[in-house]
Design a protein that fits this description.
The protein is α/β, with parallel strands linked by helices and 305 residues long. The chain is built from 6 helices and 12 strands. The strands form 2 sheets. It has a 6-stranded mixed sheet, with helices on one face. A 6-stranded mixed sheet has the order 6-7-8-9-11-10, with helices on one face. The relative contact order is 0.19. The mean pLDDT is 90.
């Protein structure tokens, strides 16, 4: 009589041992995979918040005067007194490398309740202006944050001191050779209750210089339909911070009013004959980190179609 294991029993035992080893390997692999996942997400978060990028758009218009073909506009939106490098050297260098003909500040250059105190924010903003005003003429419109707590008044003093053109519901003529286009700017709706509306500003432009190519600088991004109906050629704006978290197949996850899946948060949009270029902005003001949504300097290059 034999008390040894049969061949069948041996196979079963071997299979059990192999199964046990596989389970142990899987259990060991799980924390490693979790660590890799956390490291990847962490790296993406750091990149999304610390790496400033430059995005260029060539915009074609049939009615753009030929002298303005190649005209370059740098858009700085939603800076919120952000700092990129010592004395903002990375930001300044990127603006300089873009070779702008003009620089357009689309509001929220400072933040009424940002991570820095009021005076520190004004100092950051002034240092940026000191460095960019020699590069090209600078034009500015207010954002919603400048109007909070009266921050706008000391900031306007700084802008005027450094020769920035403040477009508070008014327009200017830009010349190249014998050709001219219009650059207009509107105050943010958080501004004075008695200010003129965009419709009135456009009407005044069309009365003074009819059939002239018009660029509208405006902080908020929700007036594409209005400006299309009014016949404005190009709108430059920001406000939405790119939707903060940019998941695949969305235009951003969160709006500035804490709404889900906002629209018109980044890039170029067209309605009728009007183009609207929306910057993802440079700084943040909420304690929500950017994800797959790098802060950006936007460059609009005007082209004759």
């Amino acid at each position: 009589m034999s008390f040894g294991l049969s061949t069948h029993d041996s196979r079963v035992n071997i299979q059990r041992e192999n199964t046990g080893k596989k389970r142990k390997r899987k259990r060991r692999a799980r924390p490693i995979l979790l660590l890799i996942f956390v490291l990847v997400i962490g790296a993406l978060l750091l990149d999304s918040n610390l790496r400033l990028v430059k995005t260029e758009y060539e915009l074609f218009f049939p009615n753009l005067p030929e002298s303005f073909d190649g005209f370059r506009i740098v858009i700085l939106a939603d800076v919120h007194a952000a700092v990129f490098g010592e004395d903002n050297e990375r930001l300044i260098s990127m603006v300089e490398d873009a070779r702008p003909d003009i620089i357009a500040i689309a509001g929220d250059f400072v933040d009424n309740y940002g991570r820095l105190g009021r005076e520190a924010q004004l100092a950051v903003a002034e240092n940026i202006l000191i460095d960019i005003t020699p590069i090209a003429p600078v034009y500015y419109v207010t954002g919603n944050h400048e109007w909070e707590d009266g921050l706008i008044w000391p900031f306007l003093d700084i802008l005027n001191e450094h020769g920035v053109y403040v477009l508070r519901n008014r327009f200017v003529h830009l010349f190249r050779g014998d050709d001219m286009i219009i650059l207009a700017g509107t105050d943010d709706p958080n501004g004075p209750a008695d200010m003129i509306r965009p419709e009135e500003l456009v009407r005044r432009i069309q009365y003074a210089v009819p059939d002239t190519f018009t660029v509208m600088l405006e902080h908020r991004n929700h007036n594409l339909g209005l400006y299309s109906a009014l016949g404005v050629d190009l709108v430059l704006s920001g406000h939405t911070h790119g939707g903060y978290i940019r998941l695949p197949f969305t235009d951003g996850l969160l709006g500035t009013n804490r709404d889900w899946f906002p629209s018109y948060t980044s890039g170029l949009y067209t309605q009728g004959g009007t183009k609207m270029l929306v910057s993802r902005g440079i700084g943040n003001h909420l304690f929500i980190p950017r994800f797959l949504n790098n802060p950006e300097v936007v460059v609009a290059i005007l082209r004759t179609a």
